[in-house]
Specification:
One of its GO terms (molecular function) is oxidoreductase activity, acting on paired donors, with incorporation or reduction of molecular oxygen. The protein is about 25% helix and about 20% strand. By secondary structure, the chain is α+β, with helices and mostly antiparallel strands. The protein has one domain: Jelly Rolls. The strands form three sheets. It has an eight-stranded mixed beta sheet. Strands 6-11-8-9 form a four-stranded antiparallel beta sheet, with no helix packed on it. Strands 13-14 form a two-stranded antiparallel sheet. β1, α2 and β2 form a beta-alpha-beta unit. α3 crosses α5. It is globular and about 60 Å long. The two termini are about 25 Å apart.
Length: about 325
């Protein structure tokens, strides 16, 4: 595990296998005054005030179209539950390597997979992170280690699925579709949900290593929360922008299958995770998608005569 490597007293530089770049990774733009990451207040939707609800709908549509991601605040998931999830993930990563090895899966669709950068090779470069990935819907799986971890995760993932479906109703309307179009065509009752916890230990040469390289997510929407340590960066107008977590907020990004369904109106957000040499970052990403039997293709209503739509089976990406 990278955690054990990082805790080695003799480590002063990264092994060559972890060198992602021989030049310092391009610094992020942490503050773009004209283009701050959108903040969406979920309480406006539930306020009962038509003007506030209209503002929420407009703000969400603009964020999806212009950024492909946004911070969601006042979402109703209890702060103590979010904090407890981060702490429980920390406790899991603190288990011995032998204990964690019990959950080492071999296939991408194994219900539970615990691993490290070896499972995330990109051009033979190892990633500076350890991970725990679990399929939590349509069937809930979870490691039996750590008292209460499974119960916390079950409640956490249920609440996110509720938010996910509510947001997709508004997204569906913003795309000019029926409110329940996405929910029905994507068979969200049996939708796929993946719980992914990532641990990024301090790195002696963070400018040369990478936690996760630039990528977009599978599925429809991904929800992310993290501890107080930054590291998530998103690509916007050709620049990298730091995502500084708001207190008790989720960062939510558009994923590949929503880009396909929207016929490209909403773009899947490219993002990456960088590392630091001072503190351990822990993030929890919950990826939400259609059922694995669903064929994802552009909505007929969004396809015009000049479009060349494609389609993809949900278990192929």
């Amino acid at each position: 595990m990278v955690k054990s490597l990082a805790e080695s007293a003799a480590l002063t530089s990264i092994p060559s296998d972890y060198t992602y770049s021989t030049k310092p990774i391009e610094p992020a733009t942490s503050d773009i005054e004209d283009d701050p990451i959108p903040i969406i207040d979920f309480s406006l939707l539930t306020s009962g005030n038509p003007d506030q609800q209209s503002k929420f709908i407009q703000d969400l549509g603009k964020a999806c179209e212009e950024w492909g991601g946004f911070m969601l605040i006042n979402h109703g998931v209890p702060e103590n539950l979010m904090k407890a999830m981060i702490e429980a993930c920390k406790d899991f990563f603190n288990l011995t390597e032998e204990e964690k090895r019990e959950f080492a899966g071999k296939h991408v669709f194994d219900p539970i997979r615990c691993g490290t950068s070896v499972s995330g090779r990109v051009d033979k470069i190892l990633l500076w992170r350890d991970f725990l990935k679990i399929i939590v819907h349509p069937e809930f799986n979870f490691p039996y280690k750590l008292t209460g971890f499974s119960e916390l995760a079950l409640e956490f993932c249920k609440r996110i699925r509720i938010l996910f479906r509510e947001l997709l109703k508004i997204i569906s309307k913003n795309l000019g579709l029926e409110e329940c179009y996405i929910e029905k065509t994507m068979d969200l009752e049996s939708g796929f949900q993946l719980f992914a916890a990532n641990l990024y230990p301090p790195c002696p040469q963070p400018e040369l290593a990478i936690g996760i390289p630039p990528h977009s997510d599978h599925g429809l929407l991904t929800f992310l929360t993290q501890n107080e340590i930054g590291g998530l960066q998103v690509q916007h107008n050709g620049k990298w922008v730091n995502v500084n977590a708001l207190h008790n907020g989720f960062f939510i990004n558009i994923a590949d299958q929503l880009e396909i369904l929207s016929n490209g109106k909403y773009k899947s957000l490219v993002h990456r995770a960088v590392v630091n040499n001072k503190a351990t970052r822990i993030s929890i990403a919950i990826a939400n998608g259609p059922s694995l039997d669903t064929i994802v293709s552009p909505s007929v209503e969004l396809v015009n005569s000049e479009s060349h739509p494609g389609c993809v089976h949900s278990n192929e990406i």
